[in-house]
Amino acid sequence: MIRLFKVKEKQRELAESANGKPPVKKQSAGELRLQKDISELNLPKTCTISFPNGKDELMTFEVTIRPDEGYYLSGTFVFSFQISPIYPHEAPKVKCRTKVYHPNIDLDGNVCLNILREDWKPVLNINTIIYGLYHLFTEPNHEDPLNHDAAAVLRDNPKMFESNARRAMAGGYVGQTFFPRCI
Amino acid sequence: MAVSQPSKSRDLDRLLLRPGHLAGPNFEPGQELREDIKEYVKVLVVGAGGLGCELLKDLALTGFRNLDVIDMDRIEVTNLNRQFLFRLEDVGKPKAEVAAKRVMERVNGVNITPHFCRIEDKPLDFYSDFSIIVLGLDSIEARSYINEVACGFLEYESDDNPLEETVKPMVDGGTEGFKGHARIIIPGTTPCFECTIWLFPSQVKFPLCTLAETPRNAAHCIEYAHLIKWNEVHGRKSFDPDNSEDMQWVYSEAVQRAELFGIPGVTYSLTQGVVKNIIPAIASTNAIISAACALETLKIVSGCSKSLSNYLTYNGVEGLHIKVTEFVKDADCLVCGPGVLIELEKSVTLKKFINQLEDHPCLLLTRVSVSYRGEKLYMQAPPELEKETRSNLDIPLFDLMNGVSRDIINVNGMAGKGDKKQSCMRKLRIAFKGVDGVADIDMAGGA
Ligand SMILES: [Zn+2]
C-alpha cells in the first residue's frame, strides 16, 4: 500500500484539509443493537421504560415495575440500566433505585438475577431482562439471597415476610432498616 | 543495477531490496521503497503497556520513522518486569511519553510522538492521518472503539468494492499469559473486529448471591469487595479501576472477607487481575506477538510478502502451538460492511422510504425503525418513543438527513416472509438523486 500512502501524504502536504467535511463518528455496534432491542420491546402493562436523556441517548434508561400480584402488589420499583459500548457482548448493569425489602435485592440496589451475570448471553435482550426483573417481584426466592434476613423470613415464615414487605412499601422500619414509601 | 547503500539492518534489506516469490502483487523492491517507508508512512501504536513497548521498539527497528503512541496510563511498579522501556524512576510518569523517549534514545532517526490521553479524547481527524494503526491493547472496549473509528473511514464504490484510498489497515495483537494472537484487519477485505467479536470469550461473572453468601475462593472475596461492599460504603461514587487508592481499598476489604471465611490467596495483584479482568502478562509472549505484528505491518505497507490471512494464534502453555486461521468477513457487518445501496428522490418521505424497504428484494423489511447518526428518526416501540418520532414520517428523508447527498443510515425490523421472519439490523447507503456528487460518481461507475 506504500504507493497509496505516498500519494496521500503528498496530497495532504499540498492541500491541508482540502476535502472540507470533517469525519463523523458512526454509531457503535452496541448502540445499534440496543436500538434494535428498544424498538422491539414488548412489555407487560406492569412495566414502563423511560429515557431521562432523551430519545437519542438510549445507553442509560430507567424501567419502572408496578407488580399487579404477589407480595409487592401496588408498589413502584425503579431500576436503572447502564449499557456498555460493547453490548451485547457484555450484560447491562442494572441497579434497583427503590429501596426494597426483597430476598434477591440488597439494600444498595444490587440485584441477584442470573441473566444479568453468570447466564448472560448475547442472544438475550432488554426485554428478557425486564421480564426477569418482573418475575423477581411475583416470585421472590430464598435460594439466591442477597438480603440474607429477608430470605430467611421468606423461607421460614411467609406470612411474616408478607407483612414485612407491606410495611416496607408503606414506608417504615423492618428491624433496624428504614424503607421509604413506594406505594 | 546500482549498488544499494546498505542500511543499518541487513535483514530488512533482504526483504525490501530483492524480488521474491512470496511478494505481494504491488511489490516494487528497491532503495526507493526503503526510503519511502521512512518518509511517507505514519504508524499509530495504540497502547504503551507490555505489548505496546515491544511494538514501538520493533516498529522503530523495522525502519518506520514516523510513529505515534497513545496511552492514558501512568507507569506502575508492577509494570517494570516486562514493560522494559520503563525504569524505577519513571514510576508515576505517563507510559506513552517515557516509551517514546526511550525508543528515540536507542534507535537513530526515529521520531515518536506520544499522546497521553484516552483514545476517545482524540478527534477522528487524528486517526485518519495515519497510514496504519497497530493495536497493543488489553480490552475489548478499546479494540472495538478503534475498529469502529478505522472502519468508519471506509467508503464503498457503487459496485460494493471498497474505495482503496479510504481503507485504514489495522494490525491487532493481544496476549493473555502464555497465549496470544496477531491479526490483520483490512476493512472491507478481511473481517473486522466486530465481525468476529464472538472470538473473545465473555468475562466470567459470579452470581452476586454467591459473592454475598457463599464465597469459595479468593476471586469471590475480591468481587464481593468490588461489587457489593464498595456500594455499601461509597454509595453511588463509582469505583475507578485506574485509581490505586480505590484498588487498595478493594484489596484490603477482600483480605478481611477472605479471613472471615478462611479463604487463602487474596493478593494485590490478584485483586487487580480479577477487577480489571487481566491475566498476568508474560514478557516472552508479548515479544513473540509483537514481532508478528511488526512483520505484518511491514508486509502490508511494503507488499514484500503476502499478508497473514488473517488471524494467528500462539499458545505456549504446553510446548508450543501456532496456528493461522482465515476468518471470513460478515457481509452484513454493521461496522465494516458496505450496506445496501439505495437511491432515492429528494422528495421521498420517511414513511414512503420505510414502505419501500418492505418491497426491496435484498431487505423485505417490515416493522422498521430508522436512525441516522445516532438520531432516532422513527422507533416502532416503546409507545412513548413511537409517539415522539411519529411526526418525522411525513418529512422527506433528505431533510431529516440535513440535506446530505449520501450517507449511511441504520434500520432494523423483521426480515423475510411469512413465518420465516426474523429480527435483523441493516446498514443502508443512501444516495439522493440529482444532488451534487451523486451523479458524478454514478457516471464514474458506469463509464
Ligand atoms: Zn465487520
From TrEMBL, chain A:
Family: Belongs to the ubiquitin-conjugating enzyme family.
Protein name as it appears in the record: CAAX prenyl protease
Functional pathway: Protein modification; protein neddylation
Single GO biological process annotation from the record: proteolysis
Keywords, ordered alphabetically: ATP-binding, Hydrolase, Nucleotide-binding, Protease, Transferase, Ubl conjugation pathway
Residues at the catalytic site: 112
Organism for this UniProt entry: Salvia divinorum (Maria pastora)
ATP-binding found in the keyword field: yes
Domain UBC core: 29-174
Function: Accepts the ubiquitin-like protein NEDD8/RUB1 from the ECR1-AXR1 E1 complex and catalyzes its covalent attachment to other proteins.
MF term (GO), any: NEDD8 transferase activity
Automatic annotation (TrEMBL), chain B:
Pfam families to which the protein is assigned, alphabetical: E2_bind (PF08825), ThiF (PF00899)
Enzyme superclass (EC): ligase
SUPFAM superfamilies: Activating enzymes of the ubiquitin-like proteins
Annotated pathway: Protein modification; protein neddylation
InterPro entries hit by this protein: E2-binding (IPR014929), ThiF/MoeB/HesA (IPR045886), ThiF_NAD_FAD-bd (IPR000594), Ub_act_enz_dom_a_sf (IPR023318), Uba3_N (IPR030468), Ubiquitin-activating_enz (IPR035985), UBQ-activ_enz_E1_Cys_AS (IPR033127)
Catalyzed chemical reaction(s): ATP + [NEDD8 protein] + [E1 NEDD8-activating enzyme]-L-cysteine = AMP + diphosphate + [E1 NEDD8-activating enzyme]-S-[NEDD8 protein]-yl-L-cysteine
Biological role: Catalytic subunit of the dimeric E1 enzyme, which activates NEDD8.
Protein name per UniProt: NEDD8-activating enzyme E1 catalytic subunit
Species, as recorded: Salvia divinorum (Maria pastora)
The organism's taxonomic lineage, starting at the top: Eukaryota, Viridiplantae, Streptophyta, Embryophyta, Tracheophyta
Gene: ECR1
